[in-house]
Each structure stands twice: as structure tokens, then as C-alpha cells.
Amino acid sequence: MKKQAAVCLALAAAGTLAMAFPAFAEEGAALTIDQIKLGEDYTDLSADLKFLTHKTDVIDTEFQRYIEEFHKSYPNINIEYEGITDYANDVTTRLSTGDWGDICMVPTTVDLDELENYFVSFGDYDKLSEQYLMLSNRMYDGQVYGMPSMGNVQGIVYNKAVFEAAGVTEVPKTPDEFLDALQKIKDNTDAIPLYTNFAADWTMTAWDAYIDSCATGQADFALEGRTKGQNPFSDRGDGTGPYAVYDILYEAVSRGLTEDDPTTTDWEGSKGMLNNGQIGCMALGSWALVQMQQAGEHADDIAYMPFPITVDGKQYAAAAPDYCYGINCNSSEDQKTAAMVYIKWLVEESGFETDEGGFSAVISKPFPESLSDFGDVELLYDVPAPAGEETLASDVNNESELGINVSGAIAKEIVESAFDGSKTMEDMVAEWNEKWTAAQEKYGITFE
Amino acid sequence: MAREKSSFIRWIQSGKVNKRLCMITFMLFPLTLLVVFTYIPFLKMFQFSFYEMKYIGDREFVGWENYLEVFTREDCFQALKLSLYYIVASFIQLALALWFASILSFKTRGGGIFKGFMFFPYLVCGIAVGFIFKFFYTRGFVLDTILQWIGFNLDNLPYWLRDRSVNNISLAASSIWRYMGQNMVLFIGAIMSVDSTLYEAAAIDGANGWAKFRYIIFPSIKTIIVLNMILAISGSLSVFEPPYVITGGSFGTGTYFVVMNELAHESQKVGLASAMAIVLLGLIFIATMIQKFVEAYFLGTNGKEAIRYVRKQKKIEAQHAAQAAKGGR
Prior knowledge:
heterodimer; A: alpha/beta; D-Maltodextrin-Binding Protein, domain 2; seven-stranded mixed sheet; 17 helices; globular; B: mainly alpha; MetI-like fold; 2 domains; two-stranded antiparallel ribbon
């Protein structure tokens, strides 16, 4: 580890020296992403880039189209994609070798204070945030190490036709309304009201994404309320907060509003089932919308609604970046420059976010139409953690083993317990709070 | 010079050097592979087990703390209890394998085909087996359909992977299906090596099938049986693929390895997971030693008589001697 850091530093030093030469003379500092003028700068730069991606499904289609398009302005920058199926785990191991390629999607397993040992800074947070959204996600010490490939909103993907056939005319806004709607779907149609996709495992982390700003209306809840707060999982009694989110899942399962056998759910199959009306809705980020629309003939029926929690008469939605692009700090100077050009192009001109159903990280770009149900909903972006507390949230989370936003362990436990009635919500909440408090104590958060 | 050279060539061509050269070159590859892919990673893991660390980031030396935590956590040893299901399954598996082996070792119609069919599952990769059984156990799919043909009502059938009362049995059954054939082939090999004149002699003496098995086959292959048992039990302690692929460890099917995997990959507690692995290694050691001892006590190893038998004989001899002494007086 230390060796790598040393190599990185040496390279960075060499880089700074190299930058004293013509192209960068006027800046006098490392290249930042906002300085690049697409289509004008570096058009004769030649470099070979290797790009590690989790999007194994579109490497031969969408991504080849991007490369072709990109080559019109930058004919000498070659990009080779490598798709990795078990992305987060494999990349974590490969990152530690230093020799993995030039661009990757930064895995969340890299702690923020480690970012500088692996990735190149895209520039100063204050400067870049004038142009781009959601940069704080992969930021440390004021430097941005990951450019969001796109943004996702957290809500529920549903089949409008099924909801209408069941007699639900208005989009539910509170947990009770939502559960009533599911009950109507069960009573009046043949569709499975809520499909958990339990067996796919990673799909269960979607539930964790609602518990912070979305369920409380506080943009900094993840750190201030959950990480630093006392017993954050307790019932607040007003249908908000983490408890309300998890309770929806618990109630839905125990009232039989989900599939019969969660152990044998089929992720690929679920897309078609939602599309043709065999499923009412699923809890997934907005990225899922496009995939569900393309899975069958009823693209028009598929829509996206805000998560059914209302705080003081207002609904909120968490807007968070999908995977962020990162550049290897061990790559050559030319490769780093070329990589930054390509990433800027991807973020601003490729149309990746439209193809994948998210919204752009570029502030000036409009919000996509597909999210029209979000008209009155206030979007809340992550707030950068104050200096010294960058890793606190992930430290406490890892220590507690609750795997919030990592493994979906809580949501899985809820489904299991609700099915066989082995534990009530109160039992589980007490356990979570206990684990959480113990983890908080280890990192110096105590309550007197 | 010429003489020296020729003597050098003679020396290099002499049997002594060639023999050593052969030994070294033949051993080089397997040894390199063994060291690089088994011993170095193992030593690294042993080292990791004393640190509090993630895959990426700083490490902190914590001494025996990880080991203490393994023994004080509830879930680790709770998960080890699930191994009982697989140990029971492995006994059933060995019994079945032995039964088929003793039938198929003799001229049976279509014996080759049966051997092939039964060995085949072992060749399928564990992940694929997982997916096969996931569909096999899915509500209303293969197993349920077959049971309905026999006359079961779907409403009375359990959810094979969801009900805590049956799901571990379902999973253990899938591992019987996979490994039975391999055990059987090992048994057939051992049975084949028995001198066939013994069977003829036994037949002349009027021995039936069971007697042949009990007094000829069983004593001749007991080493292989014990070996298979050791492999099956250490395998049962470290089950990973069936629960990981089929249920993901949900609904109380998370075995020790699944828990370990969760800790290492989801909570990033690499040091703790490494300590769990070392503890399991120790347990497998102990289990093997116990088995070895039991074998030596009841069955005897390497041509030695069983300890129990030897003691009995001594006791009898002692009694005889005592009686003889009494009688003498």
C-alpha cells in the first residue's frame, strides 16, 4: 500500500513537472476537467485506454457507438472496454495491484481517504460544482475523484395499467395509501402487487436508498441523523424515517402482497413480467425504468413514482449518482489527459444518461420527461461530509454489519422474518439499534 | 581441455545427474504451482487474520482479537450447526455409493451406462448445479410436478427453499446428487482390486451376497471408505456452493462459509473472515484426527490390527493365563 502511494506521489510529481511544458503553461497546475474544450483541445492526442465497466450488457452495442462517435473528434484515442460481471468485488481486488487499466467505475469499497492513492483528481469541488451535480459522492479534501456517469432518482417503478385496472387512480403518497393500493391490486387483478426480487440479492439494497433524505426530507440525514443519531431505526410514529420505509416492506410481505416464494425469484424474468402486467410494482432506482420499458411490448404502461412517504405534506426524493468514472493515477500523462477528455465527452455528449434512463450530471441539462410524476417532489442531493468525517458513515456501517446500501441485509432479514413470522419489526429494530449503537461507540459517537 | 570437457559431458550424462535433473524438473512445476497458489496465499491469509483490515486501505495489527470475536460471535458457530445436515447427508451419500458400487462392480446389464450417468453430476460445475436445483425446487417446477404425478397435492407441499424445516435438507440433497457418483467410482476402483478368486471360493462355501460384502469386500476397501468419510466430513464443514448459489444463505441456510463471505465482502471485515477460515481449518484438523483415531481403534490401519481387537485379545490371554495359573495351584 505504501509503495503504491509512493509510486503515485512520484508520478504526480513527474506529472507536475511535465505540466510546466507548453500545453499547460497557462494553468500552471494539473489539468482539470472544466478546462477541456471538447472538440478543440487535444484532438491530435493519441493514446490507448483500457476501460473497466460494470455495464456488460451494452459493451458491444451502445459503447461501440460512443467510441465511433468519439473518434470523429478524437481519431487517435483508442478505447478498449472490459466488462466485469461481479464488478464491485473483482475491481476492488484489481485496484490494489495498480495495473488495472486507465478508466474504471470507482467502486464504493474504496474509502474516501484512499481515493487519492488510486485516482486522479478531476479538479476542485467548489470550481467543478458550478457546472456539475453530485460531485461530493467521491470527493475528499476538496478534490473530486469521480465524475458521476449519471444520476438516479429513488422511487418505485410500476405498471400504470395494473394500478388502473385495480382501481387505483392516484399515485399513493403515504405508506398506508401504498399498502391499500397493493391490496387492491391483489384483490382486483391477477398481478403480483409488489415483486421483491429477493433472490437476486443486490436488488434488495434499493430499500436502503429510501431511508435517508427520501424518508425524512433532510438532505444530510445519512450522516447527521443516521450515522450520528441515537437509535435511528426506531419508529418515529408519523410514517417517516427509516422505520416507515422498512415497515412498508414488512407489511407488504406479511399481508401476502408479494410473490409466494422469494427464494426463487428471477431478475431477468421480472422485467418482462412487470412490462406485461403480471407484476404491479418493484422498488428500484430510476435506472430500472428503461430496462423495464424495453423488456416487452407495453413500454407506455411503465412509469416511475416517488417513494410513498410524505413529510409534512411534502414528498422528497433522493437524487444520487450512479457509478462514477475514475482515472488511474498510475497511467501515463497522455493516457490521463486522454481519459479525462473521454470522460468529459461521456458525461456531456454521449447521451449515456438518456440511454440508461438517468439524468445528466451537467447542471444545465434538463430533467428527463420519463420522471414526470416527480413534478412536485423536491429532489435532495447528497451533502458533502465535513472534513474529518468523510469515512465515518461507511466505517459505522461496516462495523455494524447491517450493510446499508451495500448488501441489503436489513431488507433481506425483513422479508425472511415477515414470511415465517419469526420476528416482529420491533424485535428487529431493537437488534439493529443495538448493533448500530455498538458500532457508533467504536467510532466515538456516544450519547449521554 | 578436451579431456575435461568430455569428462564433464560424461558426468552430466551419468545416471546420477540425470536422475536428479529429472527429479528437479518434474517437481518444479507442481511445486511452483503449489507454493504460488496454495502456500503463499495461505500464509498471507494467516497474516491477515491478525489485522483489522479491508481490501483497500490501512491495516491495523490487533493480535488475537479477531479469533476472540470468532468464538464470541453467535452467528459463526450457529452456522456450523448447519453442517450437521450435510454430515448426515454425506453418510447417506456414502451408503448409497457403496451400495451402487458393490452392485456395479460385478457384471450388470448396462453397468457402464449406469456408472456414466451416476458419475456425470460430479463433472458439472458447482455453480451450474446450483442453478439446476434452483429451478428444480422452484414452486410448481420440476420437483413439484413430479410429486403431483405421484398424487401429491400442490397445496400440501412445502416451499422447498423457503420453509426453514426443509430448506437445509433440500440443499444437502443436491450435494448428495453431485458427489455420490464420485464416491461410487472410488469404491468401484477399490472393489475391482480385490482378488476375484476369493469370491469364487466364497461362492463354493455357500456365501450369499451380504456375506461376500461383509467378509470380503468391506475388509478389503475399508481404507478407501475411511478416506471418503474424511473427505465427506471436511467437505460438510466447509459447504459453500449450494447455499450460496441456490438461496444466497437466506432463510437460515447460511453456512459457515456463507457467513465468512458476507463478512469479508459486504462488511469488509477481511481480518475477521481470515480468522474464521483459520478456525475452520483447525476444526477440520480436529475432526480428521478424531476420525483417524476411531479408525485405528475399531478397524486398524496400515496392516495393523484394530486397537480394540488387540486389547480384547490381550484381556482374553490374560484371563487364560490367570485361569491356567489358578488351575496350576
